[in-house]
Amino acid sequence: PINGNISYYQYWELSVKKNSSFHPDPEGCESKFANGMTHHIQNLGPNEWRIAHSHVTSTYLNESEPLLTKWRNDVESQGCQLINTIMLRDPLNHAMSLHKIIKRKNSTKNEWADYLSSPTGTGLWGTVLDFFLYNIHGNRY
Fold first, then answer.
1. Mean pLDDT of the chain
2. pLDDT tens digit sequence for 89-131
């Protein structure tokens, strides 16, 4: 969507499916995001903002340095700046989201309490920080 001098780009897919399996083609999803992002940052104008939302399967932070470097070079060659930020979700909200996707949307209070009191490890119920630090959302390699 375009709003004045601000345009927004996103492309992502769920990393964990309702059947508890991980995304079947994370490289393909990343490639689609990267192609769209490369197009999104072309022909920048003065006083223009371009915002991109990289989410879960869009890029993998432990291996995306070449993409980020390319995009930074493309943006800076147009006399502009690339600003990267990271937002980590509130842990309780993230836990609720995963529980709704993997288990069930309308859990009972007891089912939710059982989930909250169980250890998570680095598997299916990994936290946002696990995703960020260890790239566990799909275990690509």
1. 76
2. 776 776 777 666 666 667 777 877 777 666 655 555 556 666 6
pTM of full prediction above 0.70? no
Per-residue HEC secondary structure of the chain comes to CEECCEEEEECCCCCECCCCCECCCHHHHHHHHHHHHHHHCCCCCCCCEEEEECCCCCCCCCCCHHHHHHHHHHHHCCCCCCCCCCCCCCHHHHHHHHHHHHCCCCCCHHHHHHHHCCCCCCCCCCCHHHHHHHCCCCCCC
What is the per-residue pLDDT for 98? 67
Report how far apart, in Å, the C-alpha atoms of 76 and of each of 42, 50, 71, 81 are.
11, 13, 8, 6
First to last CA, the chain: 34
The Cα 119–Cα 41 span in angstroms is 42
The rounded distance, in Å, linking the Cα atoms of 82 and 72 is 6
Summarize pLDDT for 50-90 with one digit per residue, the tens.
999 887 777 776 678 889 999 999 999 999 999 988 777 77
